[in-house]
Every structure is written in structure tokens, then in C-alpha cells.
Amino acid sequence: MDFAQNLSNAIILGCTYLLMAAGLTMVYGVLKVLHIAHASVYTIGAFVGVLVYSWVGNFWLSLLIAMIFSGVFGILIYRFSYYYLLDVPRTVPLIASIGLFVMLTDLLQKPFLMGPYQRAFPAGGAGLPRIDTPWFSITSKQLLIFSVTIVLMVLVYLLLTRTRIGLGWQAASLDREMAAAVGINLNRIIALNFFIGSALAGAAGVLVGIYNNSVFATMGDLPSYKAFIIIVLGGMGSLPGAILASLLLAIVENFLVASIGYVLPRDSIAFLVLILMLMFRPHGLLGQE
Amino acid sequence: MLRVENLHIGYGQIEILHGVSLDVKENEIVAVLGANGAGKSTLIKTLIGWLKPRSGEIYLNEEPIQQLPPWQRIAKGIGLVPETGRIFRDLSVEDNLRLGAYLQSEAIIKEQFQVVYELFPILAERRKQTAKTLSGGEQQMLAIGRAMMSNPRLLLVDEVSMGLMPILVKRVLQVIGELRNHQVSVLLVEQNAYEALKIVDRAYILENGHLVLQGTPQELQENPKVKAAYLGG
Asked: Between chain B's N and C termini, which has fewer beta carbons within 10 Å?
């Protein structure tokens, strides 16, 4: 029973990792930029979500608005920073990204935005039921996270594999220059890429905010590095790899904590896994050598 | 079709092409021949829009295009077969071809699939395979097929013979010669002057960033300088 319960908890945790890592992988795939400021988008998504929820009291509407806002914000980040850094060594946009992340976190802590407080996000499970089986239980919040993640990922998958613009996205992440030379408008593809990736990060922020019933300005600190570990584990730029790595990392974290307890802080386990991975399989689970 | 005037191109401090002017007429196949490092690929990269020229003009059907990004040049009827093919290795043969027609309507895509599969029956056979599993020659054919998918008016071909076995060089160049029947003009840059001169209407010789000679294949084959430098005596 413990095993099944641990596994189901791990999968829910993995879902939140997945939403963050998917967007990051997409940005890396096309721009080869390690987009640290992605974690700011996550925080902003949660903030917009909690604000809208406090006005209208409807979870679905607040999720939708938070995702759209995050998506547009992601496009703005691209247009006003990385856009100017496309042809310089890849460390330059990385530094820009770290700067942007620090600046946005500081800005969000100002009293006229989020301030130094934690806000409650009492959306509960948005009316979804609780599931009890003899082996494990899923709370309604967990069911909400799980179902929203699955629906969003299926939509992204269909967009990327069944549409022309999705094929263009795949081409751009394989060879950006050549993609332009078959007629792909790179600016449009990259904007779409940032919109989708950032909307997913916003959704992750909302869901985690609800799960912990807490939204605060520095909530992006942890995901900012954990999402990176996940895309390195999965193989840089590989979307299936990121999905696999999100679930594996969540499972490893949950089971280690459940079996040997808190020998280490829980969030340091990700680094242990990263070090092992870099030693034995440096190109990641599904990455190209 | 294509007219290039006094093009100067360089990277950083170094100038590669020092004032190149050339033209390609409707339905004409033209080669720019030259040794390694003469600046042939630089010319193609500038024509497609990957590089910005320092000065000079590029006209497609008398319309200046040097300010346009690559995708808009494709929309105006240019197709590119880049150096080493640069197919999308992890995608299927069919997806590669479909990408070649990214800006076309479904009706044209259907038509062009037929044209390309007729040119290269082997691609039809392998359409579900991942592109990287093709042989070197097949990958080069896929690169040509991909460029033909947009039904281009002008095809730019960069060193298509590079890295191929002699027998394949012949075959691939022959196919490019046959593109005459598809109402497409071709600008071909090539190191293998001997094989290229068999299929073109006209050729330029590029040396150290200058076009030093031009003429029909016959004129060039009889020129003693060309004979000595490019045709092995």
C-alpha cells in the first residue's frame, strides 16, 4: 500500500516538474538558450492566477487568464532580451537570463506587487472528486494537477506533431538556419514557442500555488534549478526525455525520502541524480550524443 | 531571373568576395566554378539571406531582395540545396519533403510530391524512414527533392558533389541538368568543373573572390588556363 501511495504521490509531483521542464525544453530546443527566467514566468503565472481567483472565484477562468498572461509575458521576454542575442555565443543569453530572473524576483517582492508575504490560493480541487482505492488515495487537488497536466501535454503534443507549424517547430529545433531556408518565419515560430512554453510554466505556478495553498515572490527559486536538472537528465532539447526525467526524478525523490528519510534535504537529491547522470550518461536519457 | 551587381561580402575584417556581378536567365543552368576557399559558398549564403552583403545588389525578377529574410526569399520562388544537404536528420523523408513546401497550399504539396517522387523513386520507397538512415547519395537527393517541393523558379545549389562517390556525382548532376524540364533556373556552385561543365549552359570562374572568366562550356573547355587549373590539363 505504501508503495502504491508513494508512486501516485510521485507522479503528481512529476506532473508539476513536467509542466515547467516542457517549456524550458522547447525554448532550449529552438534557441539553445538556458532560459533561467522561465521560473519568473512560473511565479508570475501563480500571482496572476491567485489575483484573478480572488476576484472571480473560478479556478478554470483564473487558470486560463494566468496561462495567457504568462504566454504573452514569455513573448515579451524574448522580444526584449533574447531577440537581440541570437547571434552571439550562447553564454551571453544565459547570463542575461540569470540577470532577468534576479531582477524579476526582486521586482515581484516590491510592496506594490506581491510584497514579502505568502498569499493563500484556496481553490481546493476545483470541485473534482477525491479517489480512494484499497491501495492508494488521490486527493481532489492531486486529481486536478494530474488531469490539467495530461490535457495540456496532449494538446501540445498534437500541436507539435499534427500541424504544419508544429512541423516547422521541429525543423527549427533541429537546424534553425536551414528551417529559415525552407520558408519558415523564425520569428513567428520562436514567438509561438515562448507563448506555449511560458503558458505551461504559468499553469505549473497556478497548480503548485493551489497544491501548497501558498503563492509568494520567491517560489520560483526551487523550480529555477530543478527544471534545469530535468532537461539535462532528459537530454537537452528532447521533449520525451524531459517527460521521462520529470517522472523519474519525482519517483526517486519520493522513494528515497520514504525509505531512508531525510538524510539529505529532499531538494538536494536532484543534484545527486544529476552528478550520477553526468558521470555515466552525459548526453542524458534520450539526448543525442 | 537573378541579377547580382557588384556584391562585396565578408566576415569581420576579412572580405571574401570583392565585387561579384553575375546573372542567371529564365530556364538557364549556370555554374560558378572555383577551388576550395574561392568564396563559392559565401555567395550562395548571401543569395539565400544567411549572410548580409557589405554592398551591392541582388535582384530577383528585377525586384531587389537583399533586405528580405530567408523565408521571404523562399516565398518569392527561390529554393536552396545547401552544402552537405542539411536535411532534417531526425525527421522522416516525407516530413523533410513536406517542410520543403512549408509555404505552399495542400494542392501544390500534393502535386509536388508526385513531381519529386517521379524524379527520385527511391525517396517514395523510403518515405517513412528517418532521413539519417539514408545513404549519402540518397540524402543529397532528398535535399534536392526538398528544394523542389516549393516548385521554385530559381534553385541555388551549393557543392552538391561534395563527399559523393564519382558515380553518384555524375548521377546527381545529371538530375540537376534534367530540372530544365521543370521550368526552373539553376545557379550551381561547384568544385568539380569537369562534371559540372557537362550539364550547364554557361559558367563563371571564381578566383580569390573575383569572377575572372565566363563563357559557355565549350569556350571554357578550350581555354588553356581553365584546362590547366580546373580540368586537369
From this structure: C
Is B163's Cβ below 8 Å from some Cβ in A? no
Question: Please, how many CA atoms are within 13 Å of residue A173, restricted to the half-sphere of its CB?
Answer: 22
- Give dist(CA B108, CA B114) in Å, integer: 10
Give the torsion sign (CA, B66, B69, B75, B80).
positive
SS3 label, residue A23: helix
Element (H, E) at A28: helix A2-31
- CA separation for the pair B10, A41 (Å, rounded): 40
| Residue partners of B133: CB distance under 8 A and separation at least 6 | B126
User: In angstroms, rounded to a whole number, what is the distance separating the alpha carbons of residues A70 and B75?
Assistant: 33
Residue B30, phi-psi category: left (phi > 0), alpha (psi -120 to 50), beta (remainder): beta
- Domain extents for chain A? 2-115+138-280
Which residues of chain B have a pLDDT value below 70?
233
Check CB contact under 8 Å for A183 and B74. Answer: yes
Where would I find the H helices in chain B? 40-48, 70-75, 93-100, 106-119, 121-125, 136-148, 166-178, 193-196, 217-222, 224-230
Rounded (10°) CA dihedral A62, A65, A67, A71: -160
Under CATH, which architecture does the B1-77+155-163+186-233 domain have? 3-Layer(aba) Sandwich (3.40)
Residue B70 DSSP SS3: helix
| DSSP secondary structure string for all residues of B163-188 | T--HHHHHHHHHHHHHGGGGT-EEEE
The amino acid that residue A116 corresponds to is P
Neighbouring residues of A275: CB distance < 8 A, sequence distance ≥ 6:
none
- Is CATH 1.20.58 what the domain over A2-115+138-280 is classified as, yes or no? no
Mutation target among B71, B109, B148 for the A interface, most CBs of A within 10 A: B71
Interface of A with B (CB under 8 A): 164, 167-168, 170-171, 174-175, 177-186
What's the CA gap between A98 and A72, in Å, rounded? 20
SS3 at position A185: coil
Query: Following CA atoms B126, B131, B137, B142 in sequence, which dihedral angle do they give, to the nearest 10 degrees?
Result: 80
pLDDT range class, residue A1, cuts 50, 70, 90: low
pLDDT digits (tens, 9 = 90+) for A148-200: 999 999 999 999 889 999 999 999 989 999 999 999 999 999 999 999 999 99
Q: What is the ipTM of this complex?
A: 0.91
